[in-house]
Amino acid sequence: MSKQYLTLHTVDQAHPAEIFSLAPTPTTLLSASGSSSLRVHSTVDANFPLIQTIQDAHKLGCHHVATAKGGLGNVAASVGFGGEIKIWKKKTSEQNDEFALDWEIKPTKTSGGDVWAVALSANEEYLACTTSDGRIHVWDLTAKELIQTYETGARGGGSFAMSVDLSRDGKFTASGHESGTVYVFNNDAGRMVYSLSGLAKPVRAVAFSPGCKRLAAAGNAGIIALYDMEHGEHVGNLTSPNARPAWVTSLDWSDTGDYLLSGSLDGKVKVWEISRGVCVATHSETEGAIWSARWLPKNERALAPGMGKGEMFCAAGASKSLTFYREATGL
Amino acid sequence: MSSDSTCPSPSVKSPDTFITTPSDGPLSAARNIVSIPRSNSDNGALSKIEDLLESIIDALDTGSELVIPFRRPRPDAASQTQDLSQQRDARQVEVVRFPGRNVQEAKKFEALFRIIELSHEALLKGNVITKRNIYYQHPDLFRSQSVVDVLVDNLAFTLGVGRRDLNIVAAAKGLIAGPFELVMLDCSVQNCDQPGDVGILLPCIEAIDKIAFNSVRWVLVIEKEATFRTLAASRYAKESQAGHGILITAKGFPDLATRKFLSVLHTVRPGLPLFGLVDFDPHGIAILRTYQYGSKRLDHEVDATIPDLKWIGIRSHDIMSHNPLNADVNLGNHSQSTQEWSIQESQLCTRNGSQIERPTKRIRVHKLQDPGDVCAPLTPNDRKKGVEILRDIRSSTEHIVENEMQQMLELQRMLMLNIKAEIQAVDDYGDLTTWLNERLYHECS
């Protein structure tokens, strides 16, 4: 049985350039684009109004923005094309909660290669970032210091680390590489535990399930590989038959871990049901690339009368627009 | 080459076959002849050179030290990291003295003096000398061609004139081909429609009197010589579906002569569209930008930019085969990507292999391939260069023009995907014409 998702709202031209990354908090959605500003839209209002624009956040544009999955949404991290990381913290003012710059990690402070992907731990205390020469740095955001560096090749000779994720329990770090390999590190032991090379082509997205038992990885191979984190076994692939696989750019688990959201360069957004291993919904409102697709945390109440409390997600990319979808329930 | 001091002029026809006067009337109109405006403005290069020589002779008379002012543009002078005092330093007049502090300086003085002397002579006689020729006058003194190149450009910079104002030019590097003619100042005619794959060596613009455009409708500026040769050999300039055109290449990074030629072309024929064909990598974009906005080292040269040069390819959508544009401009030879893919198949191959091709009329089958097959990952240097250009675009002006917005977007996509691709990525077993027909037809109509 397929699920139905409806286009709920589209914020046209949300950015003046392509949107490369999305990061939700319980009440907002942060977006980053090829332009220099970050934008924050409210997700608790059916019109998804723009509530904050952070001007000149990254002069050369911003390719990654991250919030903590399952976190409070008080911290965000963004990485610019210039290689700088900026940490934003929510400051409560009279009218609005706004993000303000807390700390900047200059490119010179990270050794080896440009900083690329970024992820935050669920407790919003740690940040993992990858570099173009295959390293993964872990920063302590409270002490503002580098606490761990994982190497994936001979010093500085690792394959470009294109994606990164931290498990919600804080136990694992995973990185997806240009070489097609996915590495999983045990944070307590401070060492690599699995090297998973099944995809063979560049891995552009990695994501731990909310229960931290599974890892999903995808990229140029066009299929989504699922790995079990207890033994590092490959437990399955998510593929759609009769369709040309496009490069997958984005992966996100729903809060329950039942569904996986994927976005790809051919403009398609898909919802996969994990238990049956099938695609239950496909959306392609746009022909331009989808760079990022994210579930929005579930709301306590319906956004508008008659809308129900179904799950929502947002997709963005080359169209420069934010498209919000909701599950069609009881119709 | 070393013996001639003027611009090279291969394939010279007898002047009688092509004499044009304003009274040519309809014939002239059909040939679409345009005169190249001569810049008669005397910016005083000769008098500046003579002042220099005079001051040296005066110094000889009085027995004081011989001095030639000599400055060099700092390539990083415009970069933001420098503070103002450093920028002022960059503009400070330096000098070369004789006998100087050491042997090197004495030699430099002699080399510089030689160049001034040769330039003076060329200016007096009204002819042109090539940098190559200067080098061969005194190979022992100059030691290498690059020494001459640097001295000449810095001398021009110091005097506040263009290299050409000193009557010094670079040996031609660019190649040009197409069904049109160049009428030279000496009344010889160069027919650019030559058999073979090399076209003709691009003469310097100052030696050209008129250009007979005939029915030329477009100009294609090509990054790579190999691509130029392939297109020239297939007579693409004559047989394109977009009509007659001009092919031109500067063999990589563009030289001043090619840039000036294009700049003049655009001035005399503003309606003639100019297209740039470069690799999809940061280096290709840097080359495109040099054609459009010039280079930092030769910033003192004027009339050498073509901001209107349109970037025809290759772009990210050319290599991402799902691109809808591919299907739109397919000139009717439309074929949909209908092949279904087995998911288990890890090797994605093109299905062009099964195509039976006829040389004249053929059905284009879109490459059903994974973009990864035609791309290579960016190297660390590519990524660095890419970020450098982004920074350059961002810092140049407050308002970013549409051209640069496009470059920024493509650079960001390159960095996001970590891919690059050569022009060959869009060809069809070495045949670029199908792709070019689509693009040029689309752009010219």
UniProtKB/TrEMBL annotation, chain A:
Origin: domain of life: Eukaryota
WD repeats, residue ranges: 108-149, 241-282
Taxonomic classification: Eukaryota, Fungi, Dikarya, Ascomycota, Pezizomycotina
Record flagged with keyword Repeat: yes
Repressor listed as a keyword: no
GO cellular component term, pick one: nucleus
Protein name, UniProt field: WD40-repeat-containing domain protein
UniProt-listed SUPFAM superfamilies: WD40 repeat-like
Record-linked PROSITE patterns: WD_REPEATS_1, WD_REPEATS_2, WD_REPEATS_REGION
Signal peptide limits: none
InterPro entries xrefs: SKI8, WD40/YVTN_repeat-like_dom_sf, WD40_repeat_CS, WD40_repeat_dom_sf, WD40_rpt
Keywords associated with the record: Repeat, WD repeat
UniProtKB/TrEMBL annotation, chain B:
Catalytic residues identified in the record: Y136
Natural source organism: Cladorrhinum samala
UniProt superkingdom: Eukaryota
Region (Disordered): 1-26
Protein name: DNA topoisomerase (ATP-hydrolyzing)
Pfam families noted in UniProt: TOP6A-Spo11_Toprim, TP6A_N
Domain Topoisomerase 6 subunit A/Spo11 TOPRIM: 218-339
Catalytic reaction annotation: ATP-dependent breakage, passage and rejoining of double-stranded DNA
CDD domains: TOPRIM_TopoIIB_SPO (cd00223)
Cofactor(s) essential for the protein: Mg(2+)
EC annotation from Swiss-Prot or TrEMBL: 5.6.2.2
Lineage: Eukaryota, Fungi, Dikarya, Ascomycota, Pezizomycotina
